[in-house]
Amino acid sequence: MNSLEQLKQHTTVVADTGDFQSIEKYKPRDATTNPSLILKAALDPKYKSLLNDAVQYAKSAKGDLNAKLRFGIKKLFVNFGIEILKIIPGRVSTEVDARLSFRIYDTISYAKGLIRLYRKEGISPERILIKIAATWEGIKAAEILEKEGIRTNLTLLFSQEQAIACADAHVTLISPFVGRILDWYKKERGTDHIPATEDPGVLSVKKIYNYYKHFHYPTEIMGASFRNKEEILELAGCDLLTISPALLEELENSQIEVTPKLTKEEAEKQNIEKVQLDEMEFRWLMNEDRMATEKLSEGIRIFSNDIRTLEKYFKEQF
Description:
Blueprint: H1 3-7, E1 12-16, H2 20-26, E2 30-32, H3 35-42, H4 48-60, H5 65-85, E3 92-95, H6 104-120, E4 128-133, H7 136-147, E5 152-157, H8 160-168, E6 173-176, H9 178-189, H10 200-214, E7 220-223, H11 229-234, E8 240-243, H12 245-252, H13 264-269, H14 279-288, H15 290-317
Parallel strand pairs: 1-2, 1-8, 2-3, 3-4, 4-5, 5-6, 6-7, 7-8
Helix pairs in contact: 4-5, 5-6, 5-15, 6-7, 8-10, 9-10
């Protein structure tokens, strides 16, 4: 078996793309999208029909221009999600507007709007994960949504405190960003290479995995944002790993032996202290973690800018 086939024996593989052809090729169980991936796919001519449908939906929506744009972006995200769900057997993650990352009830409203659009197309909420940035407000919004039966995926996660707060909020899944952590430390240390065994992003996910499994949290861990296949292989055994088409191809063409690096049995043996977090402690620990604070803010800005780019396209069509 190639490395990808071996990896699938230990970990659920998820496609990190909005490109349907890639999803069909690698046959993942789940798929994830975000504004950057949707923007890239939406501007591809082969997906123009999905974009045009969202534009027409926005034009017919009630309200002022800003309201129409919000409806249009939601419809675009859902259009891609629907097409992806035709290919995969599992779940698709669809993201809330990143500009709502510090607004609890606006996030909840947006999430429910996405679920309503999916329901209109006959898609069950069980097949949808609502992606929300792992700010304190995002985590609180997710906690409320989970109680109402809407499953969530907390993204832009860079720290242990974010992971613990998510687990305490009983979210369905978290997406710790491995590669973006690596990017920060490479720049900070002035180096071009850090081995996968010493990769701070990899070590962060391992620490979260051990904490979750030691205390038997049901929240799933999905490593994300990989820069190389070595990071991925070092996290074999993690609940899920969401991987770009380019790295899926590398794994498919590799014959490296894959062995589980993370196991529940080993996590349960470790001596780990339970952490209690309230809002003040969460904010203080985030403030003390320069990497997590900077990468969370950067991620929100990037996703927000990509949504604005999509909105600009919609305006031009209007």
